[in-house]
Design goal:
alpha/beta, Rossmann fold, 5-stranded parallel sheet
């Protein structure tokens, strides 16, 4: 753990389908003494977007919980925080660790937006 960082790990997830796994990861990682940014637990006030991006920048690792429909884009992709978190982590060259839930299926090649298309190049973990 880098002592100059406030957090070691950022957990990104879509609330529908990914919350329970994200909570479990947060609980286990904090028990192991990692400093984990989990929005519901650690974001307390101020500008949400500014704090969120700062936390991603502080962390070395970003866990991306991939539930069944997590990569289905919302009507307004500029307001899709799951996508924005992944894009910001990729832009800042964070170590991305996808955590694929059992029912997750990756979109076909070329179906992901350009700002998160590189996500397919990261190693895979699966939760059963």
């Amino acid at each position: 753990m880098n002592k100059s960082q406030q957090y070691d790990i950022f957990i990104s997830y879509r609330r529908e389908g990914g919350y329970d796994t994200a909570q479990l990861l947060y609980d286990r990682l904090t028990q192991m003494r990692y400093r984990v940014s989990f929005d519901l637990e650690t974001l307390r006030g101020g500008k949400f977007n500014t704090q969120l991006y700062k936390r991603i920048e502080q962390c070395s690792d970003v866990l991306v919980v991939m539930s069944r429909d997590s990569l289905n884009l919302r009507e307004n992709p500029e307001d899709d925080w799951f996508r924005l978190e992944i894009a910001h982590a990729l832009k800042h060259k964070k170590n991305i660790v996808p955590v694929f839930l059992r029912d997750f299926k990756f979109p076909q090649k070329g179906e992901l937006p350009e700002d998160i298309a590189d996500l397919v190049n990261y190693s895979i973990s699966t939760v059963y």
